[in-house]
Amino acid sequence: MVVETTQSRVLRVLTEAIPGIDFENSDSLVDDKKLDSLMLAVIITVITMEFDIDIPFEDLTDSSNFNSLESITGLVEKYL
Amino acid sequence: MSWFISKGVHIVGMAAAVPEYREGIEEYKKFFDIEEVEKFINSTGVKSTHKSTAMQTASDLGYAAAVRLLEGLSIDRSEIGVMTFVTLSPDYKKPSTSCVLHKRLGLSDECTVMDVGHGCAGFVYGHQVMQSLLSTSDARYGLLVLGETTSKLVGPHDHNYMMFGDAGAAVLYERDGLGECTTLLKSDGSRYKAIIVPGGGFRNPKPDDNAVVCRDGAKRTHYDLFMNGIDVFAFSISDVPKAISEYFERTNTSAENYDVFALHQANKRILSLIAKKIGADLNKVPICIEEYGNTSSVSIPLALCDCYGSQSAEPVRVLASGFGVGLAWGVTTFELNPKAVFPVVLTSEHFDEGIIDIRML
Fold first, then answer.
1. B41, B85, B91, B320: least buried by Cβ within 10 Å?
2. Residue B272 and residue A49: Cβ atoms within 8 Å?
3. Residue B11 in contact with residue B336, Cβ under 8 Å?
4. Count of C-beta atoms within a 10 Å radius of residue B297
5. What are the tens digits of pLDDT across the range B165-183?
6. CA geometry: angle at B99 spanning B121 and B11, to 5°?
7. What number is the ipTM of this complex?
8. Looking at residue B320, what is its pLDDT?
């Protein structure tokens, strides 16, 4: 049986929700404006629903938390 | 703390009105490429909006709703002793738009009127203002009118053009000496720039109207609405469910005590996240944002009219929460009789007399 890691689970829900973004090969998704506020709203929704977590305001508005797959995974793991 | 407990006033009924003119995906495609339209719909849930005509104002929409409500309930207008108009889209800089509505509705000079300047939290703020005024008056009825034409503040260079619709609503209150209403109102002025139209007020009355590219990539003039999307989204899913939880604690209730959660229709994803955080069944959240978009202070009564209009169901216990520009937010609860909730009215009418030729004053 293959155990899905948190990162692969994050990648799965993100690519399902926003198919056009290469989450695996960028570390500046927000800084490079590949993710805008509409996409960030989708990301926050899907990771909150998928992992049943509650991310506080300070981390939701810190754009560095959404610059890469690793940083988004780190954010999820912080509140799991 | 910003808790209010009012006694002896209840909601009799409500009505809502929207402009006849409707824009959907086909119209949005004239201004945005289809990928941008699809991304917007996926993120917000908004598929169409009703937009006012050039001559149609927020008070025209509120007026249409008020007429529907008062005629539908056969109310003697001389018994209305308080009327407030909630808007950030006034007809004039002076006088208060409530004075114009006072004339149009044929209210008595015994009736007290005032504007309440709030946006997305405006229904809950207006509800408490009405509770406070009516409960301390000798009047039988109070009329809360709401209207907003935010679409006029967003140009087609900004994806929020697809977000905002226009609407009006009216809610009738009666002083009966029975019952109690608890309301929580909150404000955070430190975030006043999160949603702002910086030009056209008295701080900067006549800036030039050249559009410039802003940090988010959208082109705007000083007269256009700016919204920090992610900050407002984060506020909506953090501060608002926290306030509703405080409300539960204060009133010793839980989500199970309410039949309906009438939440400001800001974004479909926000509705889902708030419902999840407060333990509410999403099926109990009326959702009309797909058809009408974000209609600011009107969205709560509009959602209730869209959901319950023309139904003959038993009275329901409603928890309402509005949140947005200010920033301001609030929570209240009330009982609503669906038999006195009217279906949404479509209107293209405007108050012709209100278009002033200064030579004739």
1. B41
2. yes
3. yes
4. 33
5. 999 999 999 999 888 999 9
6. 45
7. 0.87
8. 98
CB B295 within 8 A of CB B87: no
Give me chain B's average pLDDT, please: 94
Q: How many CB atoms lie within 10 A of CB B72?
A: 15
| Window 11-70 of A, Cβ < 8 Å to B | 17, 20, 33, 36-42, 44-45, 48-49, 54, 56-57, 60-61, 63
Helical segments of chain A, H only: 6-17, 37-51, 57-60, 69-79
The most confident of A16-20, A46-50, B244-248, by mean pLDDT = B244-248
For chain B, the distance separating the N- and C-terminal CA atoms, rounded to the nearest angstrom, is: 47
- DSSP collapsed to 3 states, B69-87: HHHHCCCCHHHEEEEEEEC
Residue B111 has a CB neighbour count (10 Å cut-off) of 20
**Coil, helix or strand at residue B212:** strand
pTM of the full structure = 0.94
Min Cα distance A3 → chain B (Å) is 27
Quote the tokens at residue B94: 């002076």
SS3 B17: strand
Q: How far is A1 from chain B (nearest CA, A)?
A: 31
Instruction: Kindly state the average pLDDT of the residues B35-56.
Output: 93
Distance of alpha carbon B226 from alpha carbon B218, whole angstroms: 9
Q: Which residue of A has its CA nearest to B272?
A: A45
Phi-psi region of B106 (alpha: psi -120 to 50; beta: other; left: phi over 0): left
Rounded to whole angstroms, how far apart are CA atoms B67 and B70?
5
Amino acid letter, B286:
P
CB contact set of B72 (below 8 Å; sequence gap of 6+)? B13, B15, B340, B342
Residue B310 has pLDDT above 80, yes or no: no
Each residue's pLDDT tens digit, B171-215: 999 999 888 999 999 999 999 999 999 999 999 999 998 989 888
Residue bearing tokens 């050039």 = B54
Q: Average the pLDDT over A13-33 and give the result.
A: 88
Q: Quick check: B239 contacting A, CB < 8 Å?
A: yes
